[in-house]
Amino acid sequence: DARVTQTPRHKVTEMGQEVTMRCQPILGHNTVFWYRQTMMQGLELLAYFRNRAPLDDSGMPKDRFSAEMPDATLATLKIQPSEPRDSAVYFCASGPDRLRWAVNEQFFGPGTRLTVL
Amino acid sequence: KNEVEQSPQNLTAQEGEFITINCSYSVGISALHWLQQHPGGGIVSLFMLSSGKKKHGRLIATINIQEKHSSLHITASHPRDSAVYICAVRHTGTASKLTFGTGTRLQVTL
Q: Nearest Cβ partner of B96 from A31, A44, A107?
């Protein structure tokens, strides 16, 4: 049963600390997405990758957030330094993207619940 | 004005009722997704459609591209259908980028 995995599932940290969230996409999927969900804003796209290359990270605060795919089996989202307003659930999703403009489904991971004190 | 608007925001129904959730959007799209988020937080993709209608069990999704509107219907609702239902659109010309509605919280009671 292939699924997207995320670690950690929960993270509590103090303001100013570095936070790294990890995602393992479904094997064979070549698009990976990072979303943030808050009560106020709902779901927002932070960044997405196709074949490990970042295609769009316009939703991400550049000064403190960074997203990478060191290899096809790992995507990371890093916040440095973290702030209380970063408290949210961060979802990773992956999908097959066989054709450039094809309409493809996304499979969501369970999310990382981040609390910054 | 949000690019994707859902109504209602909250919905309470009794078991067995027919439920409709609406989604309107203001941008050109190549596809529309309906997602279900369980009380535990997990998100599941229910439908992805670009025209017409799709059916899966008791769930039916329709889309009218000309009117920029989609509906999600649940027939014979059940308490296990209680969840947040989220509409998301894929903008024309973007390979995979989604913009989300704020969700409809559904509570089905016995």
A: A31
